[in-house]
Write a structure and sequence with these properties.
159 residues; 3 helices; 7 strands; 32% helix; elongated
């Protein structure tokens, strides 16, 4: 009987890379959701210096319908650039309320016109703005049906 030669066949191992790629893609997704790209905050502008408060806490209300507005040092409403006078600001609030009510009616809420709007108004007021200007802005928004507000300040570390 002829003798078979035992030639060493090259051992080729092909590892299954599917689990490795799955873990890598999950990690990439996880870090992309957590990383804050840039320092631009919603409604921020260089014309406004926020007040500093030692007890300021981050907002816990994570609503989807938000409206960020800015008050400059002279108490004027700033929306996408130029400052609005009091009459133009009242008109702007009315337009915003009307647009949001129309959106609610489109979503199937016919009684939205009579109710308070679920929109959260995020107010960033300059530290030099008077309390009266802030209060007039909030009152103008309330007159149009906005009922939920969040005031933004910077946190100062208590040392």
């Amino acid at each position: 009987m002829p003798r078979r030669s035992r030639m060493a066949s090259p051992a080729v191992a092909t590892p299954n890379l599917t689990p490795l790629l799955d873990v890598v893609l999950q990690l990439i997704t996880f870090f992309m959701m957590l990383v804050h790209f840039g320092t631009r905050l919603e409604g921020s502008t260089k014309a406004v210096r926020l007040p500093v408060a030692p007890a300021a806490l981050p907002g816990s209300d994570l609503t989807f319908d938000r409206l960020a507005v800015v008050l400059d040092a002279r108490g004027r409403l700033r929306v996408d650039g130029p400052a609005l006078d009091e009459a133009a600001a009242a008109l702007w609030w009315a337009e915003q309320a009307q647009a949001r009510r129309a959106g609610l009616e489109t979503l199937g809420d016919p009684g939205a016109a009579a109710d308070d709007l679920p929109t959260v108004v995020i107010l960033r007021a300059d530290r030099a703005a008077s309390y009266g200007a802030v209060r007039r802005t909030l009152a103008a928004a309330q007159d149009q049906g906005f009922a939920h507000f969040s005031l933004v300040v910077l946190r100062r570390d208590a040392r």
